[in-house]
Amino acid sequence: MGKNKVENVFRSRISVLLPVFVFVLFSPVIILMIKYMIIPGLIIMGGLFLLVVILYSGIHYIISGDTLFFKIWFIPTCSLKIKNIASIKRSYYLFDIPTNTTASFKKLRIEFLRNTNYPYLHVSPVREHDFIDELKKVNPSIQVCFFDKKGIGRILNCDI
Asked: Would residue 33 count as lying in a domain?
């Protein structure tokens, strides 16, 4: 990420439903901790939840030249050549751990031409159409294969 190159920065979308999902998942444990007055456990769980929210809120996707960079706050995590991207598709996987770089239910699945560490990667930029346009400026052969859902299942640009 040189200083002379133009960089386009896209922050990651965070689903409004994800904290609700985590709270529902851990609510039995939270209720037991409150019932038996296990305050240190509540503090630890609250701290871990806050840490995860802070980490996921700092995810940025940076397009600089012909490279796509991923950063969490100021820490660069990886970089990929845009010319290796074959296609972009819609994805709704929640727990695809090795390839998930987002805290959202609504994602883009970037699939690659050549062997990389992973055959695909999940991202969820807030301005996803601008993100795709910037990628296609570098690599016009990227196939975009997705449609947004319409209807009642869509809340705050988030598909349920």
From this structure: no
